[in-house]
Amino acid sequence: MKTKPLRIERFLNEMDQIVPWKQLEKVIQPHYKNTGGRPPHELRVMLRIHFLQLWHNLSDPLMEEALYDRLSFQTFLGFDCFGGVIPDESSICRFRHLLEEHGLSQQILTAVNVHLDSHGLVLKAGTIVDATLLAAPVSKHNSRKERDPEMSSTRKNNTWHFGAKGHIGVQAQGQPIIHSTEFTTAKVHDGQVLEELQHGEEQALFGDSAYTKQADKRQARTDGFYYGISDRGYRQHPLSSSQKKRNRRHSGIRAKVEHPFRVIKHLWGHRKLRYKGLAKNASQFTMLCALSNIFFCRRALLAEA
Description:
By secondary structure, the protein is α/β, with parallel strands linked by helices. The chain is 46% helix and 14% strand. It contains twelve helices and six strands.
């Protein structure tokens, strides 16, 4: 008999307690209907399977096999492979397509943030913005002999990257809770989606030099708005000592925006895009942002639970 609790068991037990399951099911329920054929699986089970798939970065076939193989997954779902009907990979795929078709990932992110706000964890005084590159397959060994046409290339640090770009807006105080997301092709400049990453109630804005606009900086001084975007140096106009000092002072605040990327890309393994097209990958990225918010607030939520 196993006596030592595993880390995955502790993690899933925590998520079972703090994820607002009922609120999320209410978001999906109006769209989760039987369209003919076999009756659908329980919504509760399919939502939990989808989260397990994201937490472990599994494909649909591997997710189905893991449900048969891993006791921790079966415990999290509330049944074992001998006492319940395990959804096959087609059911798992159809559920993901349902979320993509109706744009439910963005609604789930909103529902999660409303839940966190009810616990006093959402602070709207400031926003930190940033973006991360997500690599797409570059191979042309497919039926069309071409790469994904919805992806593009961009150069960063003298290295070319092919794929997409995930943009996030994170609250500057408290836990790094993501309140806004955008998903674009890689060649879109960070500054082009700056307005979409703000919720409109900020008193301060922070970001790296990619978001620098002198017109916005002057307007912020007039409006009494704290402009924490890092200054950029140029070949003919290098940064002054005061500008370097200001950038160093803001770097500690801006570092918080990297924490969700660490969880999504390194802890959960989503460094590369799994699907073709922007829509499918955008839905997955937004859902991962929602789960990241719950992950960072788990201690506070468990303390109240």
